[in-house]
Design a protein that fits this description.
39 helices; 7-stranded mixed sheet
Length: 978
């Protein structure tokens, strides 16, 4: 029996329902997108362009820098800047807009901000104009430049395909190597295509009427396809038929700036800064013809006195690419913000920079502001008040420049001083440590760095990449040097170096960073140490015998150092005391004082520091084992030199000794006439592991023996030490293929058959003699302390250190921390921080000691035999001055002239003698004689004591050319060297 049943209706599943609903939703979304993207595209695009928002950043004015009298040394002026905002309409009219504003700038003598390092030479050939000066820095800059513009992408795809995401360090290095192979010309071609400059002759059509537009669009796309198939060079060649490379670069430069700025988000790109008001007005009038262009006002750093005190004030510049991330984290906009990069501008960056503000606005399709949405007010930075006195600074700068010019015409014994083109002056208040003047020459005008992209190619090369080839050639020809450019400026890391410090560097602060041997300006320090220690007293007389060979066990009977007067004329100063010795700068006297210091201290290793222990307390170096900070205290970057002391001299000697050992071993002859087969001593990548171990073992034993000198029971018997190192030497001779070649060469030259054992003993004995006898004796000898007594040996200090030393001496023994800054105030003038005088040390000096030294230094300036007396003729007797000249060789005597150098001319001084207020240090590189630079100190005193001088002698100006030139004609409101 069949039973019929009604079929049940099947209910739709939840899954089916979900699919239907989702399909409906997606269908609606697609229809809506088609409606928005296609049908209503232009309406919405125009609306977006009309209502697009952007944030217009407002730079905060940097704080003002004042001198001690309230004269403004660095401030801000409101200037105009031209910006470009990318919109659809602006981008469509890009080339017309660029041509328009470039024409305006050309007519008004302004220039576009050009930071593209891809430049054109006078033959219109592309080249990369690097800012870095070393080969490694330039390579890094080139790689960064090419990567930022995408040149690495094709290389990566070719080497590793398209699927790879993260490259290993090895792969990145391989890509970088390929990037460096791309020529500047090919980079130019690449950017022409990358930035679509072909659109100059094939612009995308705009819709005018549907029929013509469709035809133009079809033609445009066909040409685009055709051009896409061409190489970068082919496209550039086509464009070059109509446009010059210079024109193409202009478009490229601006598109590049827009692209680089795009990495930072939607912002305007600054195309020109610091433009004149008249230029800004012209641009304002033509804004409707220049879509995307706008003119804004912004503060620009200004230095009213130009080069005045530039080495102390510093300058501002754009943020270096390598530091962008660091400054981004600190709230800077690394693409547009400028920072202090030297001097006070750098040291007080955090105080001087203000708080940026800005405005959020709506802009239309032309990039014009249509509505202001939000304003954030900027706030100026704090003000920094310096200790610098503008008028004293001016006198020091001008007098130094004029004195150097005069020195360059001098000659002495056939040697000329035409290289006197670098120098420094430091003037300090001796009772506070306040720096009144700080001069470094050559200087620079910080105004030219205040606007990024303003430097010319010539200026960029002058400051950052000097042409040492041309400089060296001119130097050789002018001085008649028997040297080549390669010898004077050898290549290292692909860049010419300057080992003899011949090239004058504007950015090198010679006042705070330049090391000079003090020469005889150190003699007052030796006098003080001698008297205070009891080695001599203020009345001790010493007979100058010309050659200092009284202590033959130290110098030998015939080889002692000579007094300068003996070296010059075989004369001597006779029997003299400390005051006369200072007046005539008698070397012999101070040689003997130093030796007596050594003897009195026990003639031991510790006794070798008997002079240094006094010098350290005056800021002339620091105890290597002490905790004293190696600094004068100044707020800006400085170097800090060292006085002779046993440990420092020993360490330096060991460094040089390692090179000396290498040289005589590889030459096969020791200076006592011992000859041997040249030894393979230097490390080489080709050495076997066993040979490397043998060389390392020998060098370690030599270093250990050097380190033990003066502090342990070091082996001083050459024969015994030779036994210690013999096996290591023999192993090197047996394992070295290079030594085997040297043996064959030695034997083939007819010098006999080589016995390895015998050679090993000779070499071991030579090394032992050098290490345990010759070099050891040199390190332990008091000879270096004797040389140091007249400012030689390893003594080397900055002018700032010398200023601290002479200030401490003149005020009776109080060493103050030197400082450039008096106080920091807020924009309303309220005090934020005050810098009061800070005492670093207090040295007890007997009145009789101090008086003897002051008397001697006063004689230097005022007595007939004084080495600086001619500079002080006619100076007011109401203000007694004291000084000391110093003349220190660069290198070994006459050899310095062979490389174009000459002695340093150094002069230290203070005044008034009885109650000192100010100390002055002047240094001129290759200046010849310390007495030549004393006129600079006179000019500084005339500026500092101006009112007192005129009060005592109202007619003084007519008697002193320097007073007339550097003091009388200078008023507080003068804009010097603008």
């Amino acid at each position: 029996m069949i039973v019929s049943r009604e079929k049940k209706k099947k209910k739709p599943s939840r899954y089916t329902t979900f699919i239907v609903i989702m399909s409906l939703i997606f269908t609606i979304m697609i229809i809506k997108l088609i409606y928005i993207q296609i049908y209503k595209h232009e309406d919405y695009q125009d609306q977006a362009n009309t209502t697009a928002t952007k944030f217009i950043s407002e730079k905060a004015p940097r704080g003002i820098i004042y001198d001690q009298n309230g004269n403004i040394l660095a401030t801000n002026t409101q200037t105009y800047a031209m910006t470009y905002t990318s919109t659809t309409e602006a981008d469509t009219a890009f080339y017309k807009t660029v041509d328009g504003f470039l024409e305006i700038l050309a007519q008004t003598g302004e220039s576009v901000q050009d930071e593209l390092i891809l430049q054109l030479n006078d033959k219109n050939e592309p080249y990369l104009n690097f800012k870095g000066t070393t080969s490694s820095a330039q390579e890094a800059e080139e790689i960064r430049f090419k990567r930022d513009r995408g040149l690495n992408e094709d290389i990566e795809e070719e080497l590793y395909g398209t699927d790879i995401e993260d490259l290993s360090d090895t792969q990145i290095s391989a890509v970088n190597e390929e990037l460096l192979k791309i020529s500047s010309k090919d980079v130019f071609y690449y950017l022409v295509k990358s930035y679509d400059l072909i659109s100059l002759i094939n612009p995308e059509p705009t819709e005018e009427n549907s029929t013509e537009y469709e035809e133009k669009l079809k033609e445009y796309k066909a040409k685009v396809k055709q051009y896409d198939a061409m190489t970068d060079e082919e496209i550039t060649s086509i464009l070059a038929e109509t446009y010059s490379y210079s024109q193409l670069r202009n478009y490229m430069m601006i598109k590049d700036a827009i692209k680089m700025q795009s990495f930072k988000g939607f912002k305007s790109v600054t195309l020109a800064k610091n433009i004149e008001e008249n230029t800004a007005f012209i641009i304002y009038q033509k804004l409707n013809d220049l879509p995307g262009i706008d003119v804004t006002r912004e503060p620009t750093r200004t230095y009213p006195y130009g080069v005045l005190a530039s080495s102390a004030i510093g300058y501002i510049s754009s943020i270096d690419k390598t530091n962008e991330e660091l400054y981004d984290l600190r709230g800077y906009d690394a693409s547009t913000d400028l920072i202090g990069v030297a001097g006070i501008e750098s040291a007080f960056e955090d105080q001087l920079k203000g708080v940026k503000g800005g405005t959020t606005v709506k802009v239309n399709s032309k990039g014009r502001v249509t509505e202001t949405l939000f304003e954030l007010e900027s706030y100026p930075g704090s003000n920094v008040h310096l200790t610098i006195d503008k008028n004293v600074q001016y006198a020091a700068e001008q007098a130094l420049a004029d004195t150097m010019a005069e020195i360059r015409t001098n000659s002495d014994g056939g040697n000329t001083f035409s290289g006197a083109n670098r120098g420094a002056v430091v003037a300090v208040e001796v009772n506070t440590g306040r720096v009144l003047a700080s001069v470094s020459y050559p200087n620079y005008d910080p105004n030219i760095f205040a606007v990024s992209g303003q430097l010319t190619t010539a200026q960029n090369q002058q400051y950052f990449s000097p042409d040492l080839d041309t400089f060296g050639t001119n130097l050789i020809n002018s001085k008649g040097l028997n040297k080549t450019v390669d010898e004077l400026f050898p290549m290292s890391d692909g860049i010419r170096t300057d080992p003899n410090d011949l090239y004058p560097r504007s950015f090198y602060n010679y006042a705070t960073q330049g090391f000079v041997q003090p020469g005889s300006t150190f003699k007052p320090m030796t006098a003080l140490a001698g008297i205070e220690s009891g080695a001599i007293d203020a009345t001790t007389t010493i007979e100058d015998k010309g050659i200092f060979n009284e202590h033959s066990d130290v110098f030998g009977k015939d080889f002692g150092p000579k007094c300068w007067i003996y070296a010059q004329s075989h004369g001597n100063h006779g029997t003299i005391g400390v005051e006369k010795a200072l007046e005539v700068s008698c070397n012999y006297y101070f040689y003997e004082v130093a030796f007596r210091l050594y003897q009195q201290a026990g003639s031991s290793t510790e006794a070798l520091d008997s002079l240094a222990k006094y010098a350290w307390r005056f800021g002339l170096g620091t105890d290597p084992d002490g905790e004293q900070k190696p600094s004068t205290g100044i707020e800006i970057e400085e170097n800090f030199g060292q006085v002779y002391n046993f440990k420092s001299f020993k360490n330096k000697s060991i460094v040089y000794a390692k090179f000396e050992i290498r040289d005589f071993l590889e030459a096969g002859v020791y200076n006592n006439g011992t000859n041997f087969v040249p030894v393979d001593y230097s490390d080489s990548e080709d050495d076997s592991e066993n040979l490397k171990e043998a060389k390392t073992a020998l060098k370690a034993k030599i270093t250990d023996r050097f380190n033990a000198i003066g502090i342990g029971d070091e082996e001083s018997n050459p024969d015994e030490y030779a036994k210690i190192i013999l096996d290591d030497v023999k192993k090197i001779l047996e394992l070295s293929p290079k030594y085997e070649e040297n043996v064959k060469s030695y034997e083939s030259s007819g010098k006999g058959t080589v016995d390895i054992d015998a050679q090993a003993k000779i070499v071991a004995r030579v090394i032992a003699t050098y290490v345990t006898s010759d070099k050891r004796t040199e390190i332990l000898s008091p000879a270096q302390e004797v040389y140091a007594a007249i400012g030689q040996s390893i003594n080397a200090f900055t002018p700032m250190q010398l200023a601290q030393y002479i200030s401490t001496l003149s005020n009776g023994g109080t060493r103050y921390k030197l400082h450039y800054v008096d106080k920091v105030t807020d924009p309303d003038g309220e005090l934020i921080k005050e810098y009061i005088p800070e005492v670093l040390d207090k040295i007890e000096i007997k009145d009789s000691t101090l008086q003897a030294i002051k008397n001697g230094m006063s004689k230097v300036n005022n007595d007939e035999d004084g080495t600086a007396s001619t500079a002080w003729d006619g100076f007011p007797t109401s203000i007694q001055t004291a000084g000391k000249t110093g003349t220190a060789d660069f290198g070994d005597g006459e050899k310095q002239y062979e490389v174009g150098r000459a002695p340093f001319a150094t002069y230290i001084s203070f005044a008034p003698v009885d109650n000192p207020e100010i100390a002055v240090v002047t240094v001129v590189y290759d200046g010849g004689h310390g007495g030549y630079v004393a006129p600079v100190a006179r000019a500084v005193y005339e500026a500092y004591f101006k009112e007192r001088i005129l009060q005592s002698d109202p007619n003084y100006a007519s008697k002193s050319p320097s007073f007339q030139k550097y003091v009388v004609g200078v008023k507080p409101d003068n804009k010097i060297n603008k």
